[in-house]
Amino acid sequence: MPDGLKGPSSSELLSQAQNRLIEHLQASEKRYEDLVGHLRDVVFHLDLALKWTFLNQAWHGMSGYSIENSLGKYFAENLSSQDTQKCTAGFQALLTKQLTEMSEEITFNTADNDKRIFELSCRAVKDETGQFAGFAGIITDITERIVAENKITFMAYHDALTGVANRRLLMEHLAQELTKPCGHCSALLYIDLDNFKQVNDHYGHTVGDLLLCEVSDVLSEYAQDEEDLVARMGGDEFILFLSNLGENSALVTQKLVQITEKIRVQLSEPVLLGKLKIQITSSIGVVTLDHATMSHSDIFKYADAALYHSKNTGKNQVRFYDEELEQSERRRHQLEDELSQAITNEEFLLYYQPQVDAEGTTILKAEVLLRWQHPRHGIVNPDEFIPHLEEYGLIIPVGKWILEESCRQLKVWHNAGKHELCLSINVSANQFKHPDFIEFIEICLIKHQISGEQIELELTEGVAIHDIPSTIKKMDRLQELGIRIALDDFGTGYSSLSYLKHLPINTLKIDQSFVQGLPHDGYDAAIVETTMVMAHHLGLTVVAEGVENRVQLAFLKKQQCHLYQGFLFSQPLNVDRFSELIL
């Protein structure tokens, strides 16, 4: 340095360095404040007395309180005692190093008296000496997230239409119930609305939905205990679970009888939905829980069995699952197993009953009749098992076997020279409504090289007039294949003559209940005479069933009946005996 020039002294250099450091710190602090000030979450500091020492700008928007009025105040002034205890325990755990970070969900009362859900997360902070000086962290408003999560959870566990519990929540509730020790009684009521489909069909699904909501409201009135539950199983089926009914089983049963009868009566009362007054009944199955031995599946199996018997004995009834019903269920399940085995073991047989001309000498058709060759009981008549085939859902495979076997046997007789024989085959409602019914018949005709003219399908009145437009469409398709349609048991069902002119049928079968009283029963005689006149006018073939004597035959001949079927001519025959008769 040149002589005469003095540089800054050490004190001046130190002062300059301090100024630069202060400027740097101030700039850094400003950047921090700018950053923190623009955060949507609250950044806070608490001292060891748990009083606010710093709050960023987000505090006012989130809490509604000003920063100035909040600083220096106790953190929990707007929290519940439960949340306060939860947080103070967390702060203490931070100071004792049991936790390195704390996060708690709290409910905060805002300045607008609104309850918001906050998530408070923080760590303990130390001063320059290394001692704990307080806590620093972030508060996030998670109200919308919690509301959305709760909505999703609610939807997962509740029925969307009625708002009551769904199957999932019911199953979890039952699981908890079954873990409880024995000593208190609980019960499950399985409620099914009778003929609810008719409400939907007649008034529309909107009215049906309103009715379901009304039913759920009625049932909810009986869920008094906090552990009681109303659930919708789907469709028109509901569950009412009643807990803590008492310890005395006799008194519990008496109480349940009173409750279920009140529910049954209340549900049968007319309901006003807008301008419509709707009345419907219900069937109820009841099972009391045995916590020691029952499982989920047991409870529903027993309740379903009780409900089944309630509906099967006339509907609008209450049925309790008891020892008698248990034995009945055991027999029912045994029969179901036996019928399933009968399909597998090919125990079903076809019998054939001739339909002859007026002279009784020519067999023009034969009705195909199903028999069961039971391994222990021998031949079982159809009245004893066909209703159960319908009930257990086995009528479809058995019905297909009947069609297939009939076509196969027709081919055998055709090859033996019996070309004109026609087989009349009974068809159930479930068969006729099945989507592949016509397609399966086509396959059978092609497979066995049988003409459609050799097949006649017998439908009851109930099947024929269910959804008439769809029925007509199917009948037309069948007749395109050459298949004839017969209306079976005419006069015993809906007794409506108006639909006859609309349905493309070929044959009327007069039920044997009207033939038995001929000619002396005036009522039977009048029905038969009227049916004959109408059938002749419509160009229909008439078959009289159950002809057992020549007096009946003479009366029917006088009315110009076309074909006759009954014991006067032949009982139903197995394939070998019928083959001997026709060949």
TrEMBL record:
Residues 28-98 form the PAS domain. Residues 311-345 form a coiled coil. Pfam families: EAL (PF00563), GGDEF (PF00990), PAS_4 (PF08448). Its cofactor is Mg(2+). Keywords: c-di-GMP, Coiled coil. GO terms for biological process: cellular response to nitric oxide. Residues 332-583 form the EAL domain. Its EC number is 3.1.4.52. SUPFAM superfamilies: EAL domain-like (SSF141868), Nucleotide cyclase (SSF55073), PYP-like sensor domain (PAS domain) (SSF55785). GO terms for molecular function: cyclic-guanylate-specific phosphodiesterase activity. PROSITE patterns: EAL, GGDEF, PAC, PAS. It comes from the Bacteria. NCBIfam families: GGDEF, sensory_box. This is cyclic-guanylate-specific phosphodiesterase. It comes from Shewanella woodyi (strain ATCC 51908 / MS32). The lineage of its organism: Bacteria, Pseudomonadati, Pseudomonadota, Gammaproteobacteria, Alteromonadales.
